[in-house]
Amino acid sequence: MFLSMNWISDYVDLSGLDKRELISRFSLSTAEVENEIFYKGSDLRGVVVAEIKSVEEHPESKKLHLLKVDAGAGELTDVVCGAPNVRVGMKTAFAKVGAQIGDITIAPRKLAGFPSNGMCCSEKELGISDDHSGIMEITDDVSLGVDLKELYQIDDIVFEVDNKSLTNRPDLWGHYGIAREFAAISGRQLKHLEVIDLSQYDSLPGVDMKIENKLCQRYSCLKFENISRNVSPVNMRIRLYYCGMRAINLLADLTNYLMLEMGQPMHAFDSRKVEKIRVKCFDKPFVFRTLDGVDRNIDENTLMICNGDTPVAIAGIMGGLDSEIVGDTTTLTLESATFDAVSVRKSTVRLSHRTDASMRYEKCLDPEMTVKAIARFVKLLMDIDGGVRIVSSLTDEYAVKFGQVKLDFDKAYVNRYTGIEISNEHIINTLRSLGFGVEATGDEFHVEVPSWRATKDVTIKADIIEEITRIYGYDNFDVHTTKAPLYPVRAYEEKTVEDKIKDVLVKKYALHEVHSYIWAYYDEYKALGIEIEDNVKLVNSTNPNIETLRKSMIPTQLCQIKSNFQYASDFGIFEVGRVVEGLTEENLCNERKKLAITLFSKSKTTQELYFELRDMVAVMADDIKHTKIFLNKKEAVHSYQHLKNLNAVVAGDKEIGELGVVHPTVVKKIDKKAAIVYAELDVEELAGVANGGIHYEEPSRFPEMTIDLSFVCDTFAPVLSAIKQVNSELVKKVDVLDVYSDENGKSITVRMLFSHSERTLTREEVTQVTDKIISILAKDKIELKN
Amino acid sequence: MEEKILRLKAQLEEELAKVKDVAELENIRVAYLGKKGSVTELLKGLKELSGEGKKTLGQKVNILKGEVAGKIDDYKVKLAEAEILKEINAMPEFDMSIPAKLERGSYHPITLVQRECEKIFKSMGFTVEDYSEVVSEYECFESLNIPKHHPARDMQDTYYLENGQLLKTQTSAAQNAIYKKYKDALVNEGKPIKAIFPGRCFRNEATDACHENTFFQMEGVMVGKDISISNLIFFMKTMLSEVFRRDIKVRLRPGFFPFVEPGFELDINCLICGGKGCPSCKHSGWLELCPCGMIHPEVLKAGGIDPEEYTGFAFGLGLTRLAMMKYGIKDIRDLNSGNLKSMEQFTDGE
Q1: Which fold has domain A44-154?
Q2: Which residue among A380, A469, A515, B322 is buried most deeply as judged by most CB within 10 Å?
Q3: Cβ–Cβ gap A591/B161 under 8 Å
Q4: Cβ-Cβ contacts under 8 Å for B231 (sequence gap 6 or more)
Q5: What pTM was estimated for this model as a whole?
Q6: What's the CA gap between A245 and A222, in Å, rounded?
Q7: Mutate: best of B156, B158, B162, B324, partner A, most A CBs <10 A
Q8: Is residue A421 less than 8 Å (CB to CB) from chain B?
Q9: How many angstroms away from the CA of B267 is the closest CA of chain A?
Q10: pLDDT tens digits, A501-539
Q11: Cβ-based contacts under 8 A for chains A and B
């Protein structure tokens, strides 16, 4: 919303104050002002009123005219002018030689062969409207030679307030409310709005009007006729233009002017079309043509203004085309009303049509304003057009009243909330300057909230704190730290685990952490041949590609692997993120925090890569929880899982996730030659695994002995089980040294470390142990390799 | 005999001068001092002598033996040094102009920024909380004093789910649960509630370089006795100076958010120009950074805390925005792209 400093100054005398400084204080105390401030008229100089004394056609040009103008000095000046509306006796804006218009300085020159000593200006050239159809016509009774800036309020400071910062302030949607803020900030007095006493028309007949639906809080109207002027005064048009509105005609301009002044939207109907005003909703939807010529679908929840049963306007949004004021309109009915804010907002959304009026109604306007706005309208209209006649009494129905808001608080509350000392005097003065009624007894305050702040904005004591502190100025606050007691802060396990996971994977395994989305991407899944499994869905996604929440992060990661397949021949990614595993019995989403890892390699075999990933997970479990993991075979159920190599990861007594080779169909769609494996662990489950802790064992001071044995066997499991069966205290460590396959079959070399804490081992006792292991395995037909 | 000694000495000098390696030196040692070595032979020859002559000669031969052994040891050290020198000379000087191989992993930029913030808050006694991404309307709106008809609850901004739950639109959705979690310690033990809760948020909107439907925020609250606006300003200034590692100027403007009263928009002096005005701050010298305010009494009440007894402040930091500011990321979509050419650059710098 654009605001004019001239307009504000109508209601509060700001003379002698730095306007720029005031605007920046307004930004800090009230609402955000956009950075650019416009100094209107600053680039205009030397333009005066002149009269065209003669007009001759240019001998060679159809467009150009040769004028002689009188700019007040009595002598005639030659001007060549291209405007179509020139005529003898017309008064216009004339830029004399030496005048400045924007970047141009007017100099005498020859134009199409004739001397031209100045320029007649259009309103657009002067920067006071967008009218460039001809030169400005000055109809006011003014003397020639008077500087235009003395005549009209061309010089102005205009600033823009961010509408979003006014959402909770219905009182700030007009200049008068803004002026109240400037008065409070500057400590100056706010003037009263001049109005007409409408009670003088009480004896006239009322308008036939009725609120049939209480979504209309108040409806006030007045009928008048005999308007003789059509064009608004120049100053009014300039203000409208500076504030971003186009001048149309006197009546339309006046309703707009009132809206920009008081924040009260108004509407004028042709009284012939609107004789019996009814405010109501309809039972059935229908199509309604608004004054912009657009057909709009109206449903049963949209409040309408009607003439009897014929809709004539969408309440609070826009009038209808049929009831608009036309050329032969003589009698008008002026509406000034308030409607339920939520209803207007919803209708606006339904119609996807936001107007200056609806924007204000959405903020919950003060119904006390309707009658005053009419009184102000009549005052302004009569000042402009003395012939206007009021032909009805003020007709006013007040269906829904907001209650009076009264708040009590004391000084201690203010001190506690602000943390600083603000004087009683400051509290009282601030609140009064903002229109609050204040009674103070000692340190006790009783406050009456003014109607324009009481519709939703100020309802509790804390709101009063804001009023006091924002005018006090947050920059003026003495700031200090809290007096809070000291106590230890404990990190919770899941968060610690998450941090450690990331550290191990990044620091030890050089994986890359990525982020992805919580939903499945249909197109990308399909491209990889991954089935989109049924799961909880978004009900209002605007993108049909993202409708279903993901159950697992693996498909997402495979998509990311696909988009990175040329990144390197070997790489791995991981993410700690969320999935939703369907609904719980309580119909709530079963949200889980997961760790997903995917490894991609073109240099390793799938088996090598799978073992690498298994080791990674084992190291992680050991590093974070001092615990071992066990891998159990698992059945594939998802389209991306390999049918054979899929394992459940068990830690403690719980399954905490899975480890798997990616299904070859999917792998081939990513890269024909690559190996791809994945792991997905439940972070909450991992965090819940008991920490094995560190159990220190003093290393033996006596020599250790290493024995390597090679067995011909397919898996390591029986060897390990034989070692466990022997259960010798001397065996300190068991490792698989090598796995070898040739035409004779597969062999596994196991390395065992023997030691005793109190003495040197003898060869015999070690051989006893290995012999036992060999003989157990021999029973299972597992022989030592030659 | 004495002559023999002198000859041996001269001969040794001659032979040692020709020695090239440890093996040759060892041969010499054996030739002189070994069981059948020439010095040993001399010693053996002494047995045949007697009287005074035997004594003096014996002394001389023993001296000779010591001298020979000493000379050989000296040569051993010299040879070892020469060997090492040879090894050193044999090694080429490495070409250090070959670039280093930086094979290391990377953290997501959000992780880096989040960790940095967490560290600061932990140092100030805040707990770090985690919260789900799917929440109820109550958590996201009602408990935060956002009534049914508020524009923030419009369908177009929020991703609603089939079961009536929704994807949280703001980290504030965790406030209620956090108040409930800590209110007993607040009331019974006088422990103020100091918590931050980073998290992922969702808005149903079209994405472009500046807009994402999935982004990170970090909310913080402090509730206790006599927590004031003055404390809030002090805290925000201190905290932000830590985050940006320089002295930050803050400025508060009124801002409207249903869950705070009064609510503020907090600006900091522009990090690029320091407040003089530049294109980054649209020549205002200030950057709008984060909303904050005194927690609305209704919000405290919903969390089971008596607003007449306790007050508090809350603030919301845009982690995604912070990361973009810190690393100069221009397109917000890079963050969720999974593009490793982007992601690999964010290595741990702590």
Answers
A1: OB fold (Dihydrolipoamide Acetyltransferase, E2P) (2.40.50)
A2: A469
A3: no
A4: A419, A479, A480, A481, A482, B222, B313
A5: 0.86
A6: 25
A7: B162
A8: no
A9: 10
A10: 999 999 999 999 999 999 999 999 999 999 999 999 999
A11: 229
